[in-house]
Amino acid sequence: MNCPYTGQPAPGADAEPVRSPAPYVCTEPFVIDPMVTDINGETVRLRDAGTFVRIDLLGAQAWTVTRHAEARQLLTDPRLVKDINAWTLWQNGTVTRQWPLIGMIDAGRSMFTVDGAEHRRLRAKTAQAITPRRVEAMAPVIERITHALLDDLQAASEAAGGEPVDLKSVFALPLPMSVVCELMGVDPADQPALHRWYKAFFSMLTPQEERLRVIGELDTYFTAMVKARTAAPADDLTSALILAEEGGDRLTEEEVIGNLKAMVAAGHETTIGLILNAVRALLTHPDQLRLVLDGEIPWETVIEETLRHDTPTTHLLMRFATEDITVGDFTLPKGEGLVISYRAIGHDLEHHGPDADAFDITRPTPIRHMTFGHGPHICPGAALSRLEARIALPALFARFPDIRLAVPSEEIRNAPVLTQNDLQSFPVHLHAPDRARSAAGA
Ligand code: STR
């Protein structure tokens, strides 16, 4: 389906085929696989299809940008907006609430869905609460949660009696979920329900009526929580958002709910990927893992290279052109949607070099990725997710030095989540075979 790709043989007998440069614009629709059966293949094919590629998202067409430089420029262009009402396909009824990805765009009024001065007003308080300095103060909480979950992992491993343990469900998922719930003041007892709802929300296998029902349940849940905190504020960010006043202006109830939903969704669904993708990269590159464990290369480098090479967000939906916008040889017409394909951008050969497809923490050049976005909507949670990974990864490898994949890495499947790089499960053995046997027999 993608644009023609002509590998011409180079002169000389044993020469490698020369890659012809990717076209700037590809107008033939590239169908994005909602089941995510081959994320690495798709990332490379999309990147090689063009800088701007026409894409088909479950029947709705849009454009995507696959290059760092062009995306960076567009991310500060005020002619692109998040408001779905600027989308021709929405205006003319081609896209409705029946479209499976609607919840990624029509997500209520929040800092994720508005722009300009309104956006600054909606975002300020949240962003101030999670600056790198404020986040540093959360380290003890993250450490406590991490160590409790490592105990759970040990218990799960003993209960499994030599069978693999799922690192996703027992560690990588509950960790960021617990942290964001603690930050926002969400009752920990409600985490299982939230997990179920978000799994159904993101999965492309969920029938649309059910997804719309789940969106309604999430809305009911967070509305009740905001009403409760309005009546009786507590020491959490949700209460701070309710009470925050600037020049006599406060956020409306709808805006607080929208921000709370955005924080809980973004606060867990992305960091799961960061943690698991880093563990996967290290376990499949034991030479690099050695360098990290020997202190030759800092964990920060592992985190940044993972963010670049295996971005938790595959495609960020969506921005809309309020007028024709020209970049290089491409014009995004007014009313069209633009997706930012962060995973392809992390593999931009021009920006990251010819070995961009390789995971390499020893690369000599600095890792200048854009995985947290750029411009006014740049991820406000970046410092928090980095700190979570910075605490979780060394603690995991310190507690379980013999941790290994229980299946070949190629057998670890992505969940059917079109926009996110989310793994179905992550089976590991926590102990070397002999120790696992003695632990099971004990
Ligand atoms: C999920 C549904 C919801 O209630 C609110 C939001 C807004 C924030 C979105 C979130 C969504 C989906 C995942 C996003 C997140 C912001 C960051 C995260 C897109 C639509 C990323 O994957 C980068």
**How would you classify the quaternary structure?**
single chain
Largest sheet: 6 strands, mixed
Head-to-tail CA distance between termini: 56 Å
Radius of gyration: 22 Å
| Whole-number mean pLDDT | 93
Strand order within the widest beta sheet: 3-4-5-11-8-6
Name the structural class.
alpha+beta
- Range of strand content: 5-15%
Low-confidence runs:
1-17
Q: Using DSSP, what is the number of strands? A: 13
Described by the principal axes of the CA atoms, the overall outline is: globular
What is the helix tally? 19
Ligands in the structure?
A: progesterone
Give a description of the structure.
- This protein is an alpha+beta fold.
- It has 19 helices and 13 strands.
- A 6-stranded mixed sheet has the order 3-4-5-11-8-6. The protein has a 3-stranded antiparallel sheet with strand order 7-13-12.
- β3 (25-31), α1 (39-49) and β4 (52-57) form a beta-alpha-beta unit.
- α10 packs across α12 (253-269).
- Mean pLDDT is 93; it is low at 1-17.
- The protein binds progesterone.
- Residues 103-104, 107, 112, 261-262, 265-266, 269-270, 313, 316, 420 line the site of progesterone.
TL;DR?
By secondary structure, the chain is of the alpha+beta class. It contains 19 helices and 13 strands. Helices cover 47% and strands 11% of the residues.
Topology at a glance:
Elements: E1 8-9, E2 17-18, E3 25-31, H1 39-49, E4 52-57, E5 60-65, H2 68-74, E6 80-81, H3 88-91, H4 116-129, H5 132-136, H6 139-160, E7 165-166, H7 167-172, H8 174-184, H9 191-202, H10 208-231, H11 237-243, H12 253-269, H13 271-284, H14 286-293, H15 299-309, E8 316-321, E9 325-327, E10 330-332, E11 337-340, H16 342-346, H17 349-352, H18 382-399, E12 404-405, E13 427-429, H19 433-441
Parallel strand pairs: 3-4, 5-11
Antiparallel strand pairs: 1-2, 4-5, 6-8, 7-13, 8-11, 9-10, 12-13
Helix pairs in contact: 6-8, 6-18, 8-12, 9-10, 10-12, 13-15, 13-18
